[in-house]
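Quick entry between incubations.
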Amino acid sequence: MVEAVQGAGVVVTGAGGGIGAALARRFAAEGARVVVNDLDAGRAEAVAGEIGGIAVPGDASAIVADAREALGGTVDVYCANAGVALEDGDLEQPVDEKSWGLAWDVNVMAHVRAAHALLPAWLERGSGRFVSTVSAAGLLTMIGAPSYSVTKHGAYAFAEWLSLTYRHRGLKVHAICPQGVRTDMLSATGSAGDLVLRPTAIDPADVADALFEGIEEDRFLILPHPEVAAFYRARAAEPDHWLTNMNRIQQKWEELR
Ligand SMILES: NC(=O)c1ccc[n+]([C@@H]2O[C@H](COP(=O)([O-])OP(=O)(O)OC[C@H]3O[C@@H](n4cnc5c(N)ncnc54)[C@H](O)[C@@H]3O)[C@@H](O)[C@H]2O)c1
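Done. Structure below.
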């Protein structure tokens, strides 16, 4: 049991399935009181029922007030987990403004709006925990997915900014950056996912395990696939070499399509 989490009021967005449901289950098993959010009310209620949590359905962008009320006035941990991955790998078509707008809204602005709503109380009492489900695409860029790659870089940058700005005032931030995880989202990624993500995919419960290790070690960067650290170093050390290797994967993907 992780002491920091026992009895805590926890919110997990996009927790009607996949990684969010696994995080909600793990927080509940560790003795937290969990708000289960999802756009899909039925899925949020099913997970909340299973773990003895409270369902607060709706758009993750605007649920802090309702979640706080459901938890009796205090949110201790907020997991900004809801995310969207859209099929937009072909820039030879006109810009799909709607898809880019949705990716910004869910993958970045929902985090910004939640942090704005949560920070005043957290800074006043000198503690709070913000968990961002980013992606390895936020560190490395994903083949065939420009809006996902860009907005996940944005989510990572925002988590980093939160951490460096408020860590001396009691805020803990964790950025979870997995590669493939066996969820509905992975099933929908098609041939790019098959090529790059599926061979090393892990289960959602493995992501929850990695987060809890990171909470115990008080670590910002959570890498459920540890090999991502080496790829991230290679990208920083030799950008052109790294881009050439990534382009080889792109070409392989084009042959498969
Ligand atoms: N599956 C992967 O391979 C993988 C890898 C790296 C990162 N991630 C990230 O993990 C997070 C969870 O993804 P997942 O794989 O569990 O996906 P998923 O599609 O299985 O689950 C996402 C859930 O979020 C909900 N949702 C979508 N938009 C929402 C909104 N605006 N408000 C509230 N709920 C909303 C959906 O209804 C769904 O239940 C995402 O941020 C995703 O980008 C996933």
